[in-house]
Design brief:
Oligomer: single chain
Helix content: 55-70%
CATH architecture of the domain at 71-91 and 107-168: 2-Layer Sandwich
CATH superfamily of the domain at 71-91 and 107-168: Band 7 domain
Strand content: 15-25%
Number of helices: 10
Number of strands: 8
Order of helices and strands: HEEEEEEEHHHHEHHHHH
Shape: rod-shaped
Length: 304
């Protein structure tokens, strides 16, 4: 009798151990368990840790609650300003409702992937090329909203969407490079023209200043000559100052006038010979003044 009882107890213990082994399940920390009993959802979502189900009758489905990083394949489309581009992106999403992610959609990852590709094509068609290149934050927000709207009903939350790269045709790249070069050339010409304007104003002020003091022009000429002569590798042609030529011309005119004045007095040359011998010859004051003026100008120019 005792042996029969012991055998029965051992049998029950063995059956219990087999049942527990078949019913025991372990849900990891980043997972949630959804139990389907005969195909129907039973109870709440099982939390992480040890849990039991009814063998054969229940099925425990584990849903990963971690953030999933999904690259979106490159999509080719035409922008609003008729430029063909190729754009790829990346989507970050996670499951917030394990039961809906399992029941309402067959494969939530595949569904999110297809929705991301469709939304990316739509964004390309609604945007300009300049927006794709320089205003990506706004496009990322619009793309995130387009993907997240249907995904909420699947128990999925889109955390972030980023446009990775925008590929342009080679012809468009060359056109943009020429445009950038032309813009830089335009700015360089504007800067150069502004510098010329400022220089012309300064030169005009210098010309007015030199007009008040003609000797300043001669000083500037001598400074330029000294700067050029310092190289010692060029032939220097020094121009004669215009003022000097004017003084010489005046002296020549005065000399001719004196000669014309002396010709009528040729008949009186014999009468005045005694007086000329008695008194030493004196040079006309006008000629002395002309020669002295020319010498002074040359001396002043040499000293300066």
């Amino acid at each position: 009798m005792v042996e029969e009882l012991l055998g029965a107890a051992v049998g029950v213990a063995a059956a219990g151990a087999v049942y527990v082994a078949a019913a025991a399940r372990v849900v990891k920390q980043y997972e949630r368990g959804v139990v389907l009993r005969l195909g129907r959802l039973v109870g709440d979502v099982r939390p992480p840790g040890f849990t039991l189900i009814v063998p054969i009758v229940d099925r425990l489905h584990k849903v990963n609650m971690q953030i999933v990083t999904m690259p979106v394949p490159a999509q080719e489309g035409i922008t609003r300003d008729n430029v063909t581009v190729r754009v790829d992106a990346v989507v970050y999403f996670k499951v917030i409702d394990a039961a809906n992610a399992l029941i309402r959609v067959e494969d939530y990852k595949y569904a999110v992937s297809q929705m991301a590709q469709t939304s990316l094509r739509s964004i390309i068609g609604k945007s300009d090329l300049d927006d794709l290149l320089s205003n990506r934050e706004k496009l990322n927000q619009g793309l995130e909203l387009m993907i997240d709207s249907p995904a909420v009903g699947w128990g999925v939350q889109v955390d972030r969407v980023e446009i990775k790269d925008v590929s342009l045709p080679e012809s468009m790249k060359r056109s943009m490079a020429r445009q950038a070069e032309a813009d830089r050339e335009r700015r360089a010409r504007i800067i150069n023209a502004d510098a010329e304007l400022q220089a012309s104003k300064k030169l005009a002020e210098a010309a007015h200043q030199m007009a008040d003091a003609p000797s300043a022009l001669q000083l500037r000429l001598l400074q330029t000559v000294m700067a050029v002569a310092a190289e010692k590798n060029s032939t220097l042609v020094l121009p004669i100052p215009v003022e000097l030529l004017r003084f010489l011309e005046r002296g020549e005119d005065h000399e001719q006038h004196v000669k014309r004045t002396r010709e009528p007095d040729a008949g009186h040359a014999l009468e005045g010979s005694a007086e000329k011998n008695a008194h030493p010859a004196v040079e006309p004051p006008a000629e002395r003044d002309v020669e002295r003026t020319v010498e002074d100008i040359i001396e002043d120019a040499t000293e300066k």
